[in-house]
Amino acid sequence: xxxxxxxxxxxxxxxxxxxxxxxxxxxxxxxxxxxxxxxxxxxxxxxxxxxxxxxxxxxxxxxxxxxxxxxxxxxxxxxxxxxxxxxxxxxxxxxxxxxxxxxxxxxxxxxxxxxxxxxxxxxxxxxxxxxxxxxxxxxxxxxxxxxxxxxxxxxxxxxxxxxxxxxxxxxxxxxxxxxxxxxxxxxxxxxxxxxxxxxxxxxxxxxxxxxxxxx
Amino acid sequence: xxxxxxxxxxxxxxxxxxxxxxxxxxxxxxxxxxxxxxxxxxxxxxxxxxxxxxxxxxxxxxxxxxxxxxxxxxxxxxxxxxxxxxxxxxxxxxxxxxxxxxxxxxxxxxxxxx
Lengths: 215, 114
Ligand SMILES: Nc1nc2c(ncn2[C@@H]2O[C@H](COP(=O)(O)OP(=O)(O)O)[C@@H](O)[C@H]2O)c(=O)[nH]1
Ligand SMILES: [Mg+2]
Ligand SMILES: [Zn+2]
Description:
The complex is a heterodimer.
Chain A: E1 2-9, H1 12-27, E2 31-37, H2 43-54, E3 60-66, H3 71-77, E4 83-87, H4 96-104, E5 113-117, E6 134-140, H5 147-150, H6 152-157, E7 160-164, H7 176-186, E8 191-194, H8 203-214
Parallel strand pairs in A: 2-5, 2-6, 3-4, 3-5, 6-7, 7-8
Helix pairs in contact in A: 1-4
Chain B: H1 2-20, E1 25-34, H2 41-51, E2 61-67, E3 69-73, E4 79-82, E5 97-101, E6 105-113
Parallel strand pairs in B: 1-2
Antiparallel strand pairs in B: 1-6, 3-4, 3-5
Helix pairs in contact in B: 1-2
Magnesium ion (MG) binds near residues 43, 44, 72 and 117 of chain A.
């Protein structure tokens, strides 16, 4: 019997590929947004609204991560957005390796902004870096005020939280103040933006944030 | 599901390491799992049992060390052990913190038979 010292991070290999993706994207001048949140939070709807609001003013593309199928990809293609579909065949998150494969299918020189819609999940995507410049989480008004306490890591890792389906607020008993104070307790630096892809509320602020990222 | 993908990453890493050492079997593995790493030790132990049969790691004894959460207050820099990220600094009452320990997902060492 012999003891071997390993002393390595379990996600080191993922982080190495994420660094590689980040360098590739940065060298082509592409800003990459990792879009995360529960299934049904409104990630694809936010991208659909983004397509309408941005029009042709920004050249962008989307990598769609789904466990199976390409329904979301087709929703975006209909709006003229170039989409690469990645099926994780069971995995509950995208990892850097999958995104690297996705990047090979894109003409990075022809875009300045790339969205990666992660698999719907509030846990795992927070742990796997993919080479993004920004992490955005979408939490919908229907998910309840306890989510920051239950899934603190995603709130901590994100640069921006889009509180989606803001149009539903008058119809829900969501305690907005409790939600916002739970958010700032687990993630003091996280900015929050209320957006409705349905009514267009908050769209200007969202597009402004994106334009600021593009510099 | 998530632990399953972590377990297959672990398996790849240790089997590669064991092959490089010419080992026939990996008998024990020690890992560190932070309290807020997002990985549940129980689920990880189960996932390792799912992925290891038929490999050099079959039947290995998995030793999981949980790394407790330690936070540093941004207000007064005091470090304190904590139960969760929802935290109030005992020294100054501040709530904004940085994580000092508790996010680990690390392989420490393994025993092999050659
Ligand atoms: N009322 C309302 N419904 C929305 C809004 N955004 C998305 N939805 C609905 O929420 C459901 C899930 O949206 P989708 O964008 O597919 O979520 P995803 O799984 O996060 O991509 C769909 O039925 C959408 O029509 C919104 O701003 N307001
Ligand atoms: Mg979607
Ligand atoms: Zn303090």
